[in-house]
Design goal:
Blueprint (H helix, E strand, L loop, with lengths): L4 E3 L25 E3 L10 H14 L7 E2 L5 E9 L5 E4 L7 H5 L11 E4 L6 E7 L4 H11 L9 E9 L2 E6 L6 H8 L6 E7 L12 H43 L1
Pfam families: Nore1-SARAH, RA
Organism: Callorhinchus milii
Protein name: Ras association domain-containing protein 5
Length: 255
C-alpha cells in the first residue's frame, strides 16, 4: 500500500510512511524540542481579563477576535495544526457530517460498523470556536469529531509550539489546561506560537486504547515486517556467500 489508504478488514497499514518498529531519529535533523514544563496555572482577575481581551482584539487583523461574556468568561478561536504520522480510523461509506448532525451530536461510529483508515494531510489545520472554559481534552475530542475520526482520544495529545532563540519548542499540554487562555496570553500572532495535534507518545504504548480489530491489524503488520526482515537477512547472506565462492574460485585458478 503505497497510497497510505487502506481498510481494517482487507489491507495492512504497512506503507513507506509507517512501520511497526520506530525508526531512529537523526538528532541533527530534529528541529522541535518537546518539553514537559511544570507551571502554575495563570489566574486572571475580571479586570485583567477585560484588558487582555481588548488588547488582543486590537491586534487582530481578521474576524477571529474574542468576545467577553457578562459572567467573566470569553469565547474565541484557536487554530490547531494536524501533524499525525499514523493513519486515523473513520466510518466507511458515509457522507460528511452536516450542520444538523453536529447540532444533534450525531456519533458517526453509530451510523455504520464498517471502518476504513487513511492519512490526514500533514499540512491540515482547523479553526475551533471555543470558550475560556474549554479544556485541552475537549479540544481534542472536538477536533476528532470535525474530521470524523473515531479513534480513542487518548491516542492523541495537544501541544503548544513557540519559538525560543530561533528554535521551535513543543510543550505538551495537560488535559485540564485551557487553550483559549494560552492564546489570549500569547496574542493573536500564529507565526510565533501555535497549537499542534500529535500522537500521544509517552514512551509506553497504551494498548488498552486500541480496539480488537486494530490490535489484530498490528499482529498482521508484525508478521509482515518479520517476514520481510528475514528475507533481507537471507538475501544479504546469499550475496556474501556468492562473493566468497567467487573469491575461492579466483584463488584456486591463481594457485
Amino acid at each position: 500500500m503505497s497510497s497510505g489508504y487502506g481498510s481494517l478488514e482487507e489491507d495492512y497499514f504497512f506503507t513507506a510512511k509507517t512501520s511497526f518498529f520506530g525508526k531512529p531519529k537523526d538528532k541533527h535533523l530534529v528541529k522541535d524540542v518537546e518539553k514537559e514544563v511544570e507551571k502554575k496555572p495563570t489566574v486572571l482577575t475580571q479586570e485583567e481579563i477585560k484588558q487582555k481581551v481588548e488588547e488582543y482584539n486590537g491586534k487582530v487583523k481578521t474576524c477571529f477576535g474574542m468576545r467577553l461574556s457578562p459572567d467573566g468568561s470569553y469565547t474565541g478561536f484557536v487554530k490547531v495544526h494536524i501533524k499525525l504520522r499514523r493513519p486515523v480510523t473513520v466510518p466507511a461509506g458515509i457522507r460528511p457530517q452536516s450542520i444538523y448532525d453536529v447540532l444533534k451530536e450525531v456519533n458517526p461510529a453509530e451510523i455504520t460498523d464498517k471502518r476504513t483508515s487513511f492519512y490526514l494531510p500533514l499540512d491540515a489545520d482547523k479553526q475551533l470556536h471555543i470558550s475560556s472554559r474549554t479544556t485541552v481534552s475537549e479540544v481534542i475530542v472536538g477536533l476528532l469529531k470535525k474530521f470524523m475520526v473515531i479513534d480513542n482520544p487518548q491516542k492523541f495529545a495537544l501541544f503548544y509550539q513557540s519559538k525560543q532563540d530561533g528554535k521551535a519548542v513543543l510543550q505538551r499540554l495537560k488535559e485540564c489546561e485551557y487553550p483559549l487562555l494560552i492564546r489570549l496570553l500569547a496574542g493573536p500572532e500564529t507565526d510565533s506560537s501555535s497549537f499542534v495535534l500529535k500522537e500521544n507518545e509517552t514512551g509506553e504504548v497504551e494498548w488498552g486504547a486500541f480496539s480488537v480489530p486494530e490490535l489484530q491489524n498490528f499482529l498482521r503488520i508484525l508478521e509482515k515486517e518479520e517476514q520481510e526482515r528475514v528475507q533481507q537477512v537471507k538475501q544479504r547472506y546469499v550475496k556474501f556467500r556468492q562473493k566468497l565462492e567467487e573469491a575461492l574460485k579466483v584463488g584456486g585458478k591463481q594457485g
